[in-house]
Specification:
This protein is 41% helix and 19% strand. The chain is built from 13 helices and 13 strands. The strands form three sheets. The chain has a five-stranded mixed β-sheet.
Length: 340
């Protein structure tokens, strides 16, 4: 075959190839998608660690994966407006948020992912507090204390006459909601003359620099900063109990033990294959990552039930819009089973 014959035949083959390519359904190839996550600063370290691990497994399917924190309340607000795919939460969704989701036709899948011991902490130089009762915590934090309970010896007569400087998660935080309801008896019922922040690292910094400070935050932030703060055992009428793994699992650390959650937009999980893959990856790897971060993993059966709930797209909540302060792992398991 001469040069011109070869060139003519090559042209025909190329034209045929282009026609074949044009007729192929290339839309079947998965397009990179984004995942947006916001909410609880307490759950943030877990989800962030999962996101980093997931990004290493499927970078070709992921355009962008953002994990931010604006507090549980702030996260639910964005989630129920359809602005994010997953909401991290350090408490169950409440009635107001459920109504907002309903108004915007957002259906959610509730997935418990860990247990937390909400931890009361003081500065390392504090040598007078070895325990606090629930009643003493209430005396410090209730709205009636504002402008009045300003010194340590006003909490307990044997404490020194030193300033009482309080640090609290921000009012959009699920930790704030949970603590105020558990200790004061009503959500959002707290004195306002304290240092508020949605960023737990800022709370850690403030408490670690102030010998007269007291605050509360998630267990993982305490575990990460043990050299800067001291955890205070809490006495709920049966003696002081420290926030440890053993005490949480034995249901001794009441009423400051709580489950942690992620809430997934059900419709978006159907639309985005990568979101579905991410949640499956999350539940599969949660036991290891939760422990590494400093929280308390659920049992294998819990994670299996969560996977089944997600696979079946079971939407809604089993908490009726409020926290449960007497919740054990067994009771959480029974609540999860209500979805089945």
């Amino acid at each position: 075959m001469g040069f011109w014959g070869w060139r003519r035949r090559s042209g025909i083959l190329l034209a045929s190839l282009l026609v074949w390519m044009g007729g192929c359904n290339w839309s079947k190839a998965p397009k990179p998608a984004s995942i947006a996550i916001d909410g609880s600063s307490t759950v943030y370290p877990i989800t962030k660690a999962v996101a980093v691990a997931f990004q290493q497994t499927q970078p070709q399917l992921l355009q962008e994966l953002t994990v931010e924190f604006s507090g549980t309340t702030g996260g639910f607000r964005k989630f129920c407006e359809g602005k994010i795919d997953i909401s991290n939460a350090s408490r169950p969704i409440n009635r107001t948020e459920m109504n907002l989701c309903n108004r915007n036709d957002v259906r959610y899948i509730e997935l418990p992912i860990a247990f937390d011991a909400l931890t009361v902490v003081v500065n390392r130089e504090n040598n007078w507090v070895d325990k606090l009762t629930v009643l003493e915590l209430r005396k410090m934090w209730e709205p009636a204390a504002e402008g009045k309970i300003k010194k340590w010896n006003q909490v307990r007569a044997t404490f020194p006459e030193r300033p009482l400087n309080l640090f609290s998660p921000g009012v959009d935080s699920g930790t704030f909601d949970y603590f105020t309801e558990a200790i004061v008896g009503k959500v959002d019922a707290s004195r306002k003359d304290v240092v508020f922040s949605e960023d737990d690292d800022i709370l850690v910094q403030g408490i670690s620099q102030d010998p007269n400070a007291l605050g509360y935050l998630g267990l993982a932030y305490y575990e990460k900063n043990k050299d800067k703060m001291k955890a205070v055992p809490i006495d709920n009428g049966k003696g002081p109990v420290a926030p440890t793994l053993e005490n949480v699992l034995r249901y001794r650390y009441r009423p400051l033990t709580r489950p942690l959650f992620i809430y997934v937009n059900a419709a978006k999980a159907q639309e985005k294959e990568v979101l579905k893959d991410f949640v499956s990856f999350y539940l599969k790897n949660a036991p290891k990552i939760v422990s590494q971060v400093g929280y308390i993993p659920l049992t294998e059966e819990h994670y299996h039930l969560a996977s089944v709930t997600f696979y079946r797209q079971e939407v809604g909540t089993v908490f009726a819009g409020r926290a449960d302060f007497d919740l054990t792992l067994e009771e959480l398991l029974r609540k999860q089973a209500q979805f089945q």
